[in-house]
């Protein structure tokens, strides 16, 4: 269990290093071109996801996401007693990853987002779609071709940065941690709660649909 928790913490930390670090670099180098910055951010995040899922999947299952852990628990494929330790490790790792990204770019370690406002019905619905889609590729991949799951998740999130209005957070730990970064990847802390609520709603909706679709 210690090894699994460590894997979830380290993996989620690297995920946020990828998300926030590439966001900072992209914003610095894109000279105000938001589309170019988002493209760089999406590609770096997808590359990081492929790497950490491939290397840590055999250790902990490579959830790196409380929504994914909850979805596995609902399916009876993850012990309920292990849900809380996983979620704590994921949130802790996500926050440490944000702080590490700040340190790498010589920014204040402790900060909160003040500029990236993400709210409204469209973005809330977008998070339902983004999270449902993530679960769709995970459980569809596991059902039909398990060795492709790292690629499926990486490609899905890379694309979902572009086809969702929220840029596809799809992860409560990521959402919480990005509230602690006043950078390109940030989210205003007051808008975190509704994103997380929508992500959890998507888990229960996904459980109802996907257990039947991939029976």
Features:
215 residues, mainly alpha, Glycerol uptake facilitator protein, 8 helices, 0% strand
Task: Provide a descriptive summary of the structure in words.
- This protein is mostly helical.
- The protein has a single domain (2-213), classed as Up-down Bundle (Glycerol uptake facilitator protein), CATH 1.20.1080.10.
- It is 72% helix and 0% strand.
- The chain has eight helices and no strands.
- α5 packs antiparallel against α6.
- The longest helix is centred in the N-terminal third of the chain and has 28 residues, at 2-29.
- The chain is globular.
Brief rundown of the structure:
By secondary structure, the chain is mainly alpha-helical. Helix content is 72%, strand content 0%.
SSE map:
Elements: H1 2-29, H2 34-60, H3 66-74, H4 83-104, H5 121-144, H6 149-163, H7 172-178, H8 192-213
CATH superfamily grouping: Glycerol uptake facilitator protein
Estimated share of beta-strand residues? under 5%
The secondary structure category is mainly alpha
Mean pLDDT: 97
- Helical fraction: over 70%
CATH topology: Glycerol uptake facilitator protein
What oligomerization state is this entry in?
single chain
Cα-atom radius of gyration: 16 Å
Distance linking N and C termini: 29 Å
Number of domains: 1
Which residue ranges are poorly predicted, with pLDDT under 50 across at least 5 consecutive positions?
Answer: none
Report the CATH architecture.
Answer: Up-down Bundle
Shape descriptor reads globular
CATH first level: which class?
Mainly Alpha
One letter per element, helices H and strands E, the order comes to HHHHHHHH
